[in-house]
Protein backbone atom coordinates (compact mmCIF):
# COMPACT_ATOMS: atom_id res chain seq x y z
CA UNK A 1 0.00 0.00 0.00
CA UNK A 2 1.29 3.48 -0.83
CA UNK A 3 1.88 6.08 1.86
CA UNK A 4 -1.27 7.90 0.74
CA UNK A 5 -3.32 4.72 0.88
CA UNK A 6 -2.09 4.03 4.39
CA UNK A 7 -2.72 7.60 5.51
CA UNK A 8 -6.25 7.64 4.15
CA UNK A 9 -7.06 4.24 5.66
CA UNK A 10 -6.05 5.32 9.15
CA UNK A 11 -8.60 6.12 11.82
CA UNK A 12 -7.49 9.75 12.03
CA UNK A 13 -7.57 12.41 9.30
CA UNK A 14 -4.33 12.85 7.37
CA UNK A 15 -2.58 15.94 8.75
CA UNK A 16 -0.07 17.62 6.44
CA UNK A 17 2.27 19.95 8.31
CA UNK A 18 3.68 22.46 5.80
CA UNK A 19 7.12 23.84 6.61
CA UNK A 20 7.15 26.23 3.64
CA UNK A 21 9.23 29.33 4.42
CA UNK A 22 9.06 28.90 8.18
CA UNK A 23 12.67 27.77 8.36
CA UNK A 24 13.47 31.51 8.13
CA UNK A 25 16.73 30.71 6.35
CA UNK A 26 18.03 28.40 9.08
CA UNK A 27 18.58 24.69 8.55
CA UNK A 28 18.59 24.14 12.30
CA UNK A 29 15.24 25.87 12.64
CA UNK A 30 13.88 23.61 9.92
CA UNK A 31 15.15 20.52 11.75
CA UNK A 32 13.74 21.77 15.05
CA UNK A 33 10.38 22.37 13.39
CA UNK A 34 10.35 18.79 12.12
CA UNK A 35 11.01 17.60 15.68
CA UNK A 36 8.11 19.72 16.94
CA UNK A 37 5.78 18.42 14.21
CA UNK A 38 6.65 14.81 15.02
CA UNK A 39 5.64 15.38 18.66
CA UNK A 40 2.12 16.53 17.71
CA UNK A 41 0.82 13.34 16.13
CA UNK A 42 0.80 14.73 12.58
CA UNK A 43 1.74 12.04 10.08
CA UNK A 44 3.50 14.03 7.35
CA UNK A 45 5.69 17.05 6.78
CA UNK A 46 5.66 18.87 3.45
CA UNK A 47 8.28 21.09 1.88
CA UNK A 48 8.35 23.31 -1.20
CA UNK A 49 11.09 22.64 -3.72
CA UNK A 50 12.02 25.54 -5.96
CA UNK A 51 14.59 28.17 -6.69
CA UNK A 52 13.66 31.80 -7.23
CA UNK A 53 14.78 31.43 -10.86
CA UNK A 54 12.26 28.63 -11.41
CA UNK A 55 9.42 30.76 -10.08
CA UNK A 56 9.78 34.15 -11.73
CA UNK A 57 12.05 36.71 -13.44
CA UNK A 58 14.55 38.85 -11.53
CA UNK A 59 12.82 42.09 -12.48
CA UNK A 60 11.74 45.34 -10.85
CA UNK A 61 8.87 45.88 -13.29
CA UNK A 62 5.38 46.19 -11.75
CA UNK A 63 4.11 42.77 -12.94
CA UNK A 64 6.89 41.17 -10.91
CA UNK A 65 5.90 42.84 -7.63
CA UNK A 66 3.21 41.95 -5.11
CA UNK A 67 0.44 44.53 -5.13
CA UNK A 68 1.03 47.32 -2.62
CA UNK A 69 -2.22 46.65 -0.76
CA UNK A 70 -1.38 43.02 0.03
CA UNK A 71 -1.60 42.56 3.79
CA UNK A 72 1.59 40.53 4.21
CA UNK A 73 3.88 41.02 1.24
CA UNK A 74 2.73 44.31 -0.27
CA UNK A 75 5.23 45.89 -2.67
CA UNK A 76 7.78 43.10 -2.49
CA UNK A 77 9.53 41.81 -5.59
CA UNK A 78 8.50 38.27 -6.41
CA UNK A 79 12.11 37.23 -7.00
CA UNK A 80 13.19 38.49 -3.57
CA UNK A 81 10.23 36.88 -1.84
CA UNK A 82 10.89 33.48 -3.39
CA UNK A 83 14.62 33.71 -2.75
CA UNK A 84 13.91 34.36 0.93
CA UNK A 85 11.19 31.74 1.24
CA UNK A 86 12.75 28.91 -0.73
CA UNK A 87 14.16 25.81 0.92
CA UNK A 88 17.73 25.33 -0.35
CA UNK A 89 18.18 22.24 -2.49
CA UNK A 90 21.22 21.21 -0.47
CA UNK A 91 19.05 20.92 2.67
CA UNK A 92 16.56 18.48 1.20
CA UNK A 93 18.41 15.23 1.80
CA UNK A 94 18.96 16.04 5.47
CA UNK A 95 15.39 17.25 5.93
CA UNK A 96 13.92 14.11 4.37
CA UNK A 97 16.18 11.83 6.40
CA UNK A 98 15.44 13.71 9.62
CA UNK A 99 11.69 13.52 9.02
CA UNK A 100 11.86 9.79 8.39
CA UNK A 101 13.95 9.30 11.52
CA UNK A 102 11.16 11.03 13.45
CA UNK A 103 8.46 8.78 12.00
CA UNK A 104 7.07 11.33 9.55
CA UNK A 105 6.42 10.86 5.84
CA UNK A 106 8.23 13.70 4.03
CA UNK A 107 7.07 14.97 0.66
CA UNK A 108 7.12 18.18 -1.34
CA UNK A 109 5.60 20.50 -3.90
CA UNK A 110 7.96 20.69 -6.90
CA UNK A 111 7.76 23.69 -9.19
CA UNK A 112 9.88 22.59 -12.14
CA UNK A 113 11.63 19.61 -13.70
CA UNK A 114 14.80 20.11 -11.68
CA UNK A 115 12.80 19.95 -8.47
CA UNK A 116 11.16 16.69 -9.56
CA UNK A 117 14.57 15.22 -10.39
CA UNK A 118 15.89 16.18 -6.95
CA UNK A 119 12.86 14.72 -5.17
CA UNK A 120 12.95 11.50 -7.14
CA UNK A 121 16.53 11.07 -5.98
CA UNK A 122 15.25 11.31 -2.40
CA UNK A 123 12.53 8.69 -3.05
CA UNK A 124 9.76 11.23 -2.46
CA UNK A 125 6.64 9.08 -2.09
CA UNK A 126 3.97 11.77 -2.62
CA UNK A 127 3.85 14.92 -4.73
CA UNK A 128 1.76 18.03 -4.17
CA UNK A 129 0.74 20.50 -6.87
CA UNK A 130 0.24 23.98 -5.45
CA UNK A 131 -2.90 25.95 -6.29
CA UNK A 132 -1.16 28.43 -8.58
CA UNK A 133 0.43 25.54 -10.51
CA UNK A 134 -2.84 23.67 -11.09
CA UNK A 135 -2.98 25.23 -14.55
CA UNK A 136 0.58 24.08 -15.38
CA UNK A 137 -0.44 20.86 -17.11
CA UNK A 138 3.08 19.98 -18.31
CA UNK A 139 4.30 20.09 -14.70
CA UNK A 140 1.37 17.93 -13.60
CA UNK A 141 2.13 15.39 -16.33
CA UNK A 142 5.79 15.28 -15.30
CA UNK A 143 4.91 14.69 -11.65
CA UNK A 144 2.27 12.09 -12.54
CA UNK A 145 4.74 10.21 -14.75
CA UNK A 146 6.66 9.21 -11.61
CA UNK A 147 3.78 6.92 -10.72
CA UNK A 148 3.57 8.41 -7.23
CA UNK A 149 0.33 9.66 -5.63
CA UNK A 150 -0.44 13.28 -6.49
CA UNK A 151 -2.22 15.80 -4.25
CA UNK A 152 -3.64 18.80 -6.11
CA UNK A 153 -4.66 22.02 -4.40
CA UNK A 154 -7.60 23.76 -6.05
CA UNK A 155 -7.40 27.38 -4.87
CA UNK A 156 -8.72 29.80 -7.53
CA UNK A 157 -9.60 26.92 -9.88
CA UNK A 158 -12.79 26.50 -11.83
CA UNK A 159 -14.30 23.03 -12.05
CA UNK A 160 -13.15 22.90 -15.67
CA UNK A 161 -9.56 23.62 -14.56
CA UNK A 162 -9.77 20.92 -11.91
CA UNK A 163 -11.05 18.46 -14.51
CA UNK A 164 -8.21 19.37 -16.88
CA UNK A 165 -5.61 18.87 -14.14
CA UNK A 166 -7.02 15.49 -13.13
CA UNK A 167 -7.20 14.41 -16.75
CA UNK A 168 -3.57 15.42 -17.31
CA UNK A 169 -2.47 13.51 -14.21
CA UNK A 170 -4.39 10.38 -15.13
CA UNK A 171 -3.22 10.54 -18.71
CA UNK A 172 0.40 10.59 -17.53
CA UNK A 173 -0.06 7.57 -15.30
CA UNK A 174 -1.23 8.79 -11.90
CA UNK A 175 -3.66 6.39 -10.25
CA UNK A 176 -3.85 7.84 -6.73
CA UNK A 177 -5.16 11.39 -6.67
CA UNK A 178 -6.32 13.63 -3.84
CA UNK A 179 -7.86 17.09 -4.21
CA UNK A 180 -7.57 19.80 -1.58
CA UNK A 181 -10.22 22.47 -1.39
CA UNK A 182 -8.35 25.73 -0.85
CA UNK A 183 -8.69 29.49 -0.64
CA UNK A 184 -5.45 30.98 -1.95
CA UNK A 185 -5.52 34.06 0.27
CA UNK A 186 -2.77 34.67 2.83
CA UNK A 187 -4.17 34.77 5.44
CA UNK A 188 -7.71 33.75 4.51
CA UNK A 189 -10.89 34.84 6.25
CA UNK A 190 -12.92 31.83 7.48
CA UNK A 191 -15.91 33.24 5.58
CA UNK A 192 -13.90 32.73 2.39
CA UNK A 193 -13.40 29.01 3.03
CA UNK A 194 -16.50 27.76 1.16
CA UNK A 195 -16.32 24.34 2.77
CA UNK A 196 -19.32 23.23 0.73
CA UNK A 197 -16.78 22.84 -2.09
CA UNK A 198 -15.53 19.66 -0.40
CA UNK A 199 -18.70 17.73 -1.19
CA UNK A 200 -18.93 19.26 -4.68
CA UNK A 201 -15.38 18.18 -5.56
CA UNK A 202 -15.88 14.71 -4.13
CA UNK A 203 -19.13 14.14 -6.01
CA UNK A 204 -17.91 15.71 -9.25
CA UNK A 205 -14.61 13.85 -9.53
CA UNK A 206 -14.90 10.74 -7.37
CA UNK A 207 -11.60 11.22 -5.55
CA UNK A 208 -10.77 11.84 -1.87
CA UNK A 209 -10.96 15.51 -0.94
CA UNK A 210 -9.25 17.38 1.88
CA UNK A 211 -8.53 21.00 2.81
CA UNK A 212 -5.50 23.23 2.39
CA UNK A 213 -6.18 25.95 4.93
CA UNK A 214 -4.70 29.42 5.42
CA UNK A 215 -7.14 30.74 8.01
CA UNK A 216 -5.99 31.55 11.55
CA UNK A 217 -6.60 28.84 14.12
CA UNK A 218 -8.10 25.39 13.78
CA UNK A 219 -11.86 25.98 13.62
CA UNK A 220 -12.14 25.81 9.83
CA UNK A 221 -10.19 22.56 9.37
CA UNK A 222 -12.12 20.85 12.19
CA UNK A 223 -15.35 21.86 10.47
CA UNK A 224 -13.95 20.56 7.19
CA UNK A 225 -13.26 17.14 8.68
CA UNK A 226 -16.82 17.05 10.03
CA UNK A 227 -17.94 17.70 6.45
CA UNK A 228 -15.91 14.81 5.10
CA UNK A 229 -12.41 16.19 4.44
CA UNK A 230 -9.92 13.32 4.54
CA UNK A 231 -6.82 15.50 4.92
CA UNK A 232 -5.88 18.89 6.34
CA UNK A 233 -2.83 20.91 5.34
CA UNK A 234 -1.65 23.72 7.61
CA UNK A 235 1.55 25.77 7.69
CA UNK A 236 3.57 25.28 10.88
CA UNK A 237 6.09 27.54 12.60
CA UNK A 238 8.00 27.30 15.85
CA UNK A 239 6.67 30.75 16.73
CA UNK A 240 4.58 33.35 14.91
CA UNK A 241 6.53 36.10 16.63
CA UNK A 242 9.52 35.09 14.51
CA UNK A 243 8.12 37.22 11.72
CA UNK A 244 8.79 34.86 8.80
CA UNK A 245 7.00 35.42 5.50
CA UNK A 246 4.42 32.70 6.28
CA UNK A 247 4.21 33.05 10.04
CA UNK A 248 0.98 35.07 10.17
CA UNK A 249 -1.14 32.16 8.90
CA UNK A 250 0.86 29.32 10.47
CA UNK A 251 0.14 27.20 13.52
CA UNK A 252 2.55 26.88 16.40
CA UNK A 253 3.31 23.30 17.53
CA UNK A 254 0.86 23.30 20.45
CA UNK A 255 -1.87 24.46 18.07
CA UNK A 256 -0.95 21.74 15.60
CA UNK A 257 -1.33 19.19 18.40
CA UNK A 258 -4.78 20.67 19.09
CA UNK A 259 -5.60 20.35 15.41
CA UNK A 260 -4.61 16.68 15.36
CA UNK A 261 -6.70 15.94 18.44
CA UNK A 262 -9.79 17.89 17.42
CA UNK A 263 -9.78 16.66 13.82
CA UNK A 264 -9.58 13.10 15.11
CA UNK A 265 -12.55 13.82 17.37
CA UNK A 266 -14.48 15.36 14.47
CA UNK A 267 -13.82 12.28 12.32
CA UNK A 268 -15.04 9.98 15.10
CA UNK A 269 -18.14 12.10 15.67
CA UNK A 270 -19.37 11.66 12.10
CA UNK A 271 -18.03 8.17 11.41
CA UNK A 272 -21.29 6.41 12.19
CA UNK A 273 -24.80 6.99 10.92
CA UNK A 274 -27.76 8.36 12.87
CA UNK A 275 -28.94 6.47 15.95
CA UNK A 276 -31.55 7.40 18.51
CA UNK A 277 -32.47 5.87 21.86
CA UNK A 278 -29.99 4.64 24.44
CA UNK A 279 -26.54 4.36 22.86
CA UNK A 280 -23.46 2.55 24.15
CA UNK A 281 -22.06 4.47 27.10
CA UNK A 282 -25.45 6.00 28.00
CA UNK A 283 -26.73 3.03 30.02
CA UNK A 284 -26.00 4.44 33.45
CA UNK A 285 -27.38 7.87 32.59
CA UNK A 286 -30.48 6.18 31.17
CA UNK A 287 -30.92 4.37 34.49
CA UNK A 288 -31.01 7.77 36.16
CA UNK A 289 -33.79 9.22 34.01
CA UNK A 290 -36.68 10.58 36.06
CA UNK A 291 -39.65 8.48 37.06
CA UNK A 292 -42.51 8.80 39.57
CA UNK A 293 -41.54 8.16 43.19
CA UNK A 294 -43.53 8.13 46.39
CA UNK A 295 -42.03 10.92 48.53
CA UNK A 296 -44.04 10.54 51.76
CA UNK A 297 -45.28 7.55 53.75
CA UNK A 298 -48.86 7.00 52.61
CA UNK A 299 -51.79 4.89 53.83
CA UNK A 300 -54.46 3.14 51.82
CA UNK A 301 -56.90 5.74 50.56
CA UNK A 302 -54.38 8.62 50.43
CA UNK A 303 -54.51 10.62 47.19
CA UNK A 304 -51.75 10.85 44.61
CA UNK A 305 -50.66 14.47 44.35
CA UNK A 306 -47.59 16.71 44.58
CA UNK A 307 -47.30 16.05 48.32
CA UNK A 308 -47.11 12.29 47.90
CA UNK A 309 -45.62 11.65 44.46
CA UNK A 310 -43.01 13.50 42.43
CA UNK A 311 -40.95 12.98 39.29
CA UNK A 312 -37.40 12.38 40.51
CA UNK A 313 -34.25 10.56 39.54
CA UNK A 314 -33.60 7.62 39.11
CA UNK A 315 -35.81 5.43 36.95
CA UNK A 316 -37.82 2.50 38.27
CA UNK A 317 -41.22 4.06 38.66
CA UNK A 318 -43.90 4.96 36.15
CA UNK A 319 -42.75 7.47 33.50
CA UNK A 320 -43.37 11.14 34.33
CA UNK A 321 -45.49 11.30 31.18
CA UNK A 322 -48.14 9.22 33.06
CA UNK A 323 -48.63 11.93 35.73
CA UNK A 324 -51.99 12.99 34.35
CA UNK A 325 -53.12 9.36 34.51
CA UNK A 326 -52.24 8.89 38.19
CA UNK A 327 -52.85 12.27 39.83
CA UNK A 328 -56.02 12.16 41.90
CA UNK A 329 -56.05 8.38 42.18
CA UNK A 330 -55.91 6.76 45.62
CA UNK A 331 -53.40 4.40 47.03
CA UNK A 332 -54.71 0.85 47.42
CA UNK A 333 -52.31 0.00 50.23
CA UNK A 334 -49.71 1.63 52.46
CA UNK A 335 -46.52 2.63 50.63
CA UNK A 336 -43.27 3.84 52.19
CA UNK A 337 -41.47 6.98 51.04
CA UNK A 338 -38.70 6.19 48.57
CA UNK A 339 -40.74 3.55 46.71
CA UNK A 340 -41.07 3.75 42.92
CA UNK A 341 -44.70 4.26 41.99
CA UNK A 342 -46.26 1.35 40.12
CA UNK A 343 -49.79 0.54 39.02
CA UNK A 344 -50.03 -2.12 41.71
CA UNK A 345 -50.04 0.60 44.39
CA UNK A 346 -53.06 2.43 42.99
CA UNK A 347 -56.78 1.92 43.38
CA UNK A 348 -59.78 3.75 41.92
CA UNK A 349 -59.64 7.42 40.89
CA UNK A 350 -60.28 9.90 43.68
CA UNK A 351 -63.46 11.97 43.95
UniProtKB/TrEMBL annotation:
Pfam families: NeuB, SAF. InterPro entries: AFP_Neu5c_C_sf, Aldolase_TIM, PseI-like, PseI/NeuA/B-like_N, Pseudaminic_synth_PseI, SAF, SAF_AFP_Neu5Ac, SAF_PseI/NeuA/NeuB. PROSITE patterns: AFP_LIKE. SUPFAM superfamilies: AFP III-like domain, Aldolase. One of its GO terms (biological process) is carbohydrate biosynthetic process. Signal peptide: none annotated. It comes from Blastococcus xanthinilyticus. GO terms for molecular function: N-acylneuraminate-9-phosphate synthase activity. The lineage of its organism: Bacteria, Bacillati, Actinomycetota, Actinomycetes, Geodermatophilales. This is N-acetylneuraminate synthase. Gene3D superfamilies: Aldolase class I (3.20.20.70), Antifreeze-like/N-acetylneuraminic acid synthase C-terminal domain (3.90.1210.10). SMART domains: SAF. Residues 291-349 form the AFP-like domain.
Amino acid sequence: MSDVGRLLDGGAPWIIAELSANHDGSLQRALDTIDAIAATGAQTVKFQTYRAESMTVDSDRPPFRISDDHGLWGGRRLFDLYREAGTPYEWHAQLFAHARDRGLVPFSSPFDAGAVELLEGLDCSIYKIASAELVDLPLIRLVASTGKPVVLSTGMATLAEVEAALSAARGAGATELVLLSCTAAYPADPAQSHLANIAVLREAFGVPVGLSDHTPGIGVPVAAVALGAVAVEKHVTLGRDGGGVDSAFSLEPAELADLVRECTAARAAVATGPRFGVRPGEEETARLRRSLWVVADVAAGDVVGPETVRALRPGGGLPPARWDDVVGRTFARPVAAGTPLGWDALGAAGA
